């Protein structure tokens, strides 16, 4: 998605937004990062969120369970 290509449908129609909350209430947990990058596909509607701050990423790694591949 960050490369401008949708990871789901392959469309080159990606839009990004850097606003803080995107209107979604994330206050249910202090773990969830306050700064996110939102990418949306203009073709299929798929959304991706990226954690922007390294300290938020560290919190997630500490408090979330890792998904084993
Ligand atoms: Zn797509």
Task: Tell me, briefly, the overall form.
Answer: globular
Poorly predicted ranges (pLDDT <50, ≥5 residues)?
none
List bound small molecules: zinc ion
SSE topology string: EEEH
Count of distinct strands: 3
- Spatial strand sequence of the major β-sheet: 1-2-3
Mean pLDDT: 81
Number of helices: 1
Q: Strand percentage, roughly?
A: 15-25%
Care to describe what's here?
14% of the residues lie in helices and 22% in strands. The two termini are 21 Å apart. The protein has one helix spanning 54-63, and strands spanning 14-17, 36-41, 47-51. Strand 2 (36-41) and strand 3 form a beta hairpin. The protein has a three-stranded antiparallel β-sheet. The protein has one helix and three strands, in the order E-E-E-H. Bound molecules: zinc ion.
Sum up the structure in keywords.
single chain; 69 residues; three-stranded antiparallel sheet; 1 helix; 3 strands; binds zinc ion
Q: Strands, helices and their partners?
A:
Blueprint lengths: L13 E4 L18 E6 L5 E5 L2 H10 L6
Antiparallel strand pairs: 1-2, 2-3
Bound molecules: zinc ion.
Explain briefly what this protein structure is:
The protein is α+β, with helices and mostly antiparallel strands. Helices cover 14% and strands 22% of the residues.
